[in-house]
Amino acid sequence: xxxxxxxxTLAKRIDLQYFSKRSSFxxxxxxxxxxxxxxxxxxxxxxxxxxxxxxxxxxxVSAAHAVFAAQCTLCHIRANAYAATAVDKTCLGCHDAPAHxxxxxxxxxxxxxxxxxxxxLRLAATSDSACTQCHNHLMxxxxxxxxxxxxxxxxHAHPQFAALRAGQTDPGTIRLNHYAHLQPTLRGPAGxxxxxCYDCHRAINVTEPWPxxxxxxxxxxxxxxxxxxxxxxxxxRRSVEAGPGAYMTPIKYVNQCAACHVLQFxxxxxxxxxxxxxxxxxxxxxxxxTEYIREHPSAIGISPNTMEPVPPTADTxxxxxxxxxxxxxxxxLRQGQMVPQQNVLRPTGPATPPPTSAQNWVEQRASTAExxxxxxxxxxxxxxxxxxxxxxxxxxxxxxxxxxxxxxEFDHEAHRMMDCxxxxxxxxxxxxxxxxxxxxxxxxxxxxxxxxxRAGAAEGRCFECHSYHDWRSERRVxxxxxxxxxRGSGPVPVAQAAxxxxxxxxx
Length: 507
Fold this sequence. Notes:
Blueprint: H1 7-11, H2 24-50, E1 76-78, E2 84-86, H3 88-92, H4 110-113, H5 128-135, H6 178-181, E3 186-188, E4 191-193, H7 197-200, H8 253-257, H9 278-295, E5 318-319, E6 326-327, H10 358-381, E7 384-385, E8 394-395, H11 420-423, H12 441-445, H13 483-487, H14 494-500
Antiparallel strand pairs: 1-2, 3-4, 5-6, 7-8
Helix pairs in contact: 9-10
């Protein structure tokens, strides 16, 4: 027969004296019940006695906030009887950060992107999720979108740089042929030269002299100049300390071009014309020719077209500034006499009747010189148009872009170990001004990757190139804390307090 079990028979198997017997489980339960309240009480008492707020901290603070790491109440404001959270208001007390975009539909809390108590790291090194939470499905509060609405990372879901997209050309108006300037037989101020990228393109913080700035006597307005940081080069990122070395010095004729492209307007005048507006150039030429004919009246017999030299006389011989030898000032300057021979202009066109007076000589000579300047020198780099005031030509405003990534940052100084053409691949073959020679996104991805075999070669998260805040619009805040509040220390010494302005200085 099958065995029958009832509740009564089963109950008889239970030891009714189990509570009076010792067991390991009951011993541990009793020990923990007594020990845990003692530990909690000691924890609270120790914090009260030694003011160690770190007992409640979830980890060390970042390097930027380490100075007040022990003063939790500077950031954590008690919202109720127990919780004390760090709210945006406390962050804005020191960082009055400008808005990301006036049309954004969502503004995250400071702490959601800048996560504290993770150790001494840079709070600006945010995770990609802080950016892609909006940019993966970008929306605007009003109007249309100006940016790609689906960006989830630099490795794969990121559009090509705007300057290199279809239909884009270089907006610059200065004609420049990189291919011609990199030839080994390029004529320099004293013979063939081999230009290097560094001869014309340098970071703003470099103070070395430019090798091709000035070759001959120049007008005062045409001396080499120190170029400061342009408005378009102001860094948007407050967290990056690279300084102005991140951007290149703007191209200036007086710094990079003057030695080779000398604006010599007359073989008899050693000083070249200034690199300025046509009316300024015209006034300079007339002034120099007037001075010359006043000092050398016998030059009136020279036709401005033939430039035939006049036999030298004792009163027309002058010592040469370069060789120390005397020369006829009515003779055209020669190689080694301050002006490179290739820069001496040669008059062309039909013969002009000989001048009848000094004023007529100046007018004829100035007309010939200006025609050569406008049609030869100026047109090499500038788009010259007719119809300016007083019969002078005009030129299209000189434009050379100084920043190609208006919404991102690039630091040339951080890439100084690389050859220029490693990224700017097309420069040695570029012949047109319209060529855009900045590197494409595929070149940057070769190092800046967060996945695959090359992950970690260079930082590839969004913050490396982009910043949520445009710190150029930051509003400065007035500090309100003293040393005691920041450090949680005792009273400040009288002398120190007087220096800080918290106490009157001793008389």
